[in-house]
Amino acid sequence: MLVDSPPEQRAETAPAPPNRRAIRSLGLLASVALLTLVALASVALGAKALPMDQVWHGLFHASGTYGDVVVGERVSRTVLGLLVGAALGLSGAVLQALTRNPLADPGLLGINAGASAAVVTAITFFGVTSLNGYVWFAFFGAAAVGALVWFLGGSRGATPVRLALAGTAISAALYGYLQALMIMDNAALGKMRFWTVGSLSSAGDSTIRQVLPFLAVGTLVALALAKPLNAMAMGDDTARALGADLNRTRALSMAAATVLSGAATAACGPIVFVGLMVPHLVRSFTGPDMRWILPYAAVLSPVLLLGADVIGRLVARPAELQVGIVTAVLGGPVFIHLVRRRRTAQL
């Protein structure tokens, strides 16, 4: 259900007082420091913990020992977690601003469903079995659904309500198609069981190289939309009066969110709640200004994703829980709390 933007979002986003800007800047620096610590923990911790001197040696003086190989694998996993986390956070923040729904995430517009349905199709009908094949099918599925939602939502006349309704309807249809294929094809069911929960364990240099260009372009577009999205938060009439091109902003927002979440889903499978929780929680500290929400979301979303990945590796040693399972377990109660708090506020 869509939630109207709060009054403070409808008001014009005035420049923050110097002391508040300083607090936000310090908070962003602290977030970067926290991200650095979590990234180091992601490299050092796992089925077998590595001392920091061995981590350092593996990072800068790799010589082919067991520890160096483990460090190399964990570095790829950590880099992919950084990229995917930032992508999910940015796409969630953009979609929440686009739909004026603080509880929106990439799943609202059917992007995750499109990627999943494309991968199941690739496995069932084209015999694709490698991650390299999954990436391109998943990205194509996400992009196709994003374009379809934009068309059904009214294209140039799209509104937040139409986009959300179109995304919900398409998601329901695609998940029905996905389940039907998996029931009819046992091989597809076995291969998809691991991918659909979301995991960073398949990280590799080839995966990073394939998704990096899409993530870079999507990130640049999302950050460039901060001011137009601020104008849209004040209402369509006010945004037009301020010179904002609503159709262009909505189209670019849809494109950026599709590219970011589509590439992230292609690389790791559907990972839930990261794109919902982090932008929503960040907004409580930064206020409604997208010029701050987007950078904070890009930094703190990887903190959540990598932190969940480390937890998954530690609680089930020597095996591991996929990061998608951990984020779902952590995100479910948080989402219920957010919904209950908003309902209480509306009574």
How does this model look, in words?
The protein is mostly helical. Helices cover 77% and strands 0% of the residues. Helix 5 (111-126) packs across helix 6 (131-152), helix 6 runs antiparallel to helix 12 (246-268) and helix 14 crosses helix 15. The protein starts with 6 loop residues before the first helix and ends with a helix.
Summarize the structure.
With 347 residues, the protein is mostly helical. The protein has helices spanning 7-10, 18-44, 52-60, 66-99, 111-126, 131-152, 160-184, 186-195, 205-224, 226-233, 236-241, 246-268, 274-286, 290-315, 323-346.
Largest sheet: none
Low-confidence stretches: 1-12, 343-347
The rounded Rg comes to 20 Å
Task: List the helices and strands in order.
Answer: HHHHHHHHHHHHHHH
Residues in helix, %: over 70%
Outline type: globular
Let me know the number of strands: 0
CA-to-CA gap between the ends? Answer: 16 Å
Structural class: mainly alpha
Rounded average pLDDT: 81
State the assembly state of the protein chains: single chain
Strand content bin: under 5%
- What is the tally of helical segments? 15
